[in-house]
Q: What sequence folds into this?
């Protein structure tokens, strides 16, 4: 009589989770920061506008990660 052969399946392999870069702290991951607008001879502040984050240069990811 023939013997019965059993085979085992290899365990399913899962792909590693993608590495998500940490968001930049000064801009919160947006790439923009608020810049104060100053006018006049006494350089008084009148408002704010969006400016490029100098820490991450607008990419939104932490450069030290």
A:
């Amino acid at each position: 009589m023939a013997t019965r052969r059993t085979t085992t399946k290899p365990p399913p392999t899962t792909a590693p989770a993608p590495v998500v870069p940490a968001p930049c702290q000064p801009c919160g991951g947006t790439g923009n920061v608020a810049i104060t607008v100053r006018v006049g001879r006494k350089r008084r502040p009148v408002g704010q506008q969006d400016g490029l984050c100098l820490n991450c240069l607008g990419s939104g990811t932490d450069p030290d990660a």
Summary: The radius of gyration is 28 Å. The mean pLDDT is 87. DSSP finds no helices and two strands in the chain.
